[in-house]
Amino acid sequence: MTRVYVPRDSAALAVGAEAVAHAFVAAGCEVVRTGSRGLFWLEPLVEVETPEGRRAFGPATPGDVAAILAGGSPLALGDMAAHPWLAAQNRLTFARCGVVDPLVAPAFDALARAREMGPDALIAAVTASGLRGRGGAGFPVGVKWRTVREAAGEHKYVVCNADEGDSGTFADRMLMEGDPFALIEGLAIAAFAVGAGKGFVYSRSEYPHANATFAAAIETARTKGLLGSFDIELRVGAGAYVCGEETALLESLEGRRGQVRAKPPLPAHRGLFGRPTAVNNVLSLATVPWIVLNGGEAYAALGTGRSRGTMPIQLAGNVARPGLYEAPFGLTLREIVEDIGGGAATGRPVRAVQCGGPLGAYFPPALFDTPYDYEAFAARDGLIGHGGIVVFDDTVDMAAQARFALEFCAIESCGKCTPCRIGSTRGVETLDRVRAGVDVAGGLALVEDLCETLKFGSLCALGGFTPYPVMSAIRHFPEDFAFRPDGGGT
Ligand SMILES: Cc1cc2nc3c(=O)[nH]c(=O)nc-3n(C[C@H](O)[C@H](O)[C@H](O)COP(=O)(O)O)c2cc1C
User: Fold this and answer.
1) Beta pairing partners, 88
2) Beta-carbon neighbour count of residue 439 at 10 Å?
3) Tens of pLDDT along 388-444?
4) Which residue of 63, 130, 144, 401 is surrounded by the most CB atoms within 10 Å?
5) Distances from the Cα of 444 to the Cα of 100, 429, 473, 477, angstroms
6) Ligand 1 pocket, 245 CB below 6 A?
7) Which CATH architecture has domain 3-87?
8) Full-prediction pTM beyond 0.85?
9) Which helix (H) or strand (E) holds 389?
10) 463 lines ligand 1 (CB under 6 A)
11) CATH of region 303-393, choose from 3.30.420.40, 1.10.3720.10, 3.10.20.600, 3.50.50.60
């Protein structure tokens, strides 16, 4: 019986992978469901096992199944490991994603190794790796773990932030669907490092497939005794952007409305239920097993400056080759958008990219030589964030994008602080007047002033970072803010 690998990743399901899987079953094949390899423009991407290894085809429809099995399909992609888009990557965090059956538990070799090392050596290795939090803030993981380990308290927690609200991002979801055991093992290692007995994973209701796969994987880990006395609970939030902010997340986990807490105290000192808590993103945690098995220095050997290791870059929006591209920090934005992404899907010139989610800056082509690393981006008022890159072609109206950033902030604000709650709404009103041609210069000056207040007066980065997309749009695309009677952009 021919074995065929068909992804069950949400991105593949969205373009018909389920029907393709059924067609292979109807043709008498054994179908193994996998995650995605992250080449979304080729989904559903199926692989047929042959004596020479797996051979890929995509994008496949049920009507292609007969030709694929007969070996004469024009969709043939050959050996995926040799595919240029994959071969050029450095997949550490996503090494197994799209390759393995996500629900078959691997041996937890890294957890065993971590236990041999002991918490101190383990934290030292993670610190030496230079791994920084992949959720957005880029805080060193080892330093956070050390703080929680040293915090006073009998009970401690580890919390995985799988809220993934950033626009254009999907890496957490892909990993939970394609390799949930990488996250489970990473979380167990984190718990061992900080001395926590219980872990929570906070996901969102918009991720039904990820939640189902992850819940099944936890159950397998539990029944196989892979976790020892440690236990993991999956919690599913209703999907509020601010619930990804770690203190709002903790409020939500405790059963309250997701509102930001003032810091200090840091969650590392007083987090979930008032106990010391390490909150880490899915990617931060899922990278730890590789670091434990290969050593902190091997991870630190990749990357540039203070941005060490690899980043799972997520290409989305109007881009010819959308998907997940894991590579060491240091590529230029131009290489990512033009060479890897292939430019805009429409074939028109790329005019702007927004990096780092809805709170990230818009970069014009004039800044495309910026190296993709935390410091180089910060120097240009930009954000790496969770690794999302959303591409826009030359039909984009940047004044509308700036308005959208403020409107997003107004809608998603938890309401606790005035600059974010009220300032965002006043910003929308002011930009509406600007776009209608009412005192354009005065309105833009007012928006800039308002952005200063948001930046320095907000309780968290929702209000604090909204100025970046707004001001970058105004600074780099001023022509879109000049009044035009037709109301259009460029
Ligand atoms: C408004 C807002 C939304 C956020 N959303 C997320 C999110 O969806 N996932 C995430 O991991 N971090 C998110 N963060 C960052 C978290 O507050 C926190 O820094 C992170 O979970 C820590 O984990 P890390 O150090 O591994 O990145 C968000 C922050 C803000 C201000």
Assistant:
1) none
2) 14
3) 999 999 999 999 999 999 999 999 999 999 999 999 999 999 999 999 999 999 999
4) 144
5) 52, 12, 12, 13
6) yes
7) 3-Layer(aba) Sandwich (3.40)
8) yes
9) strand 388-393
10) no
11) 3.10.20.600
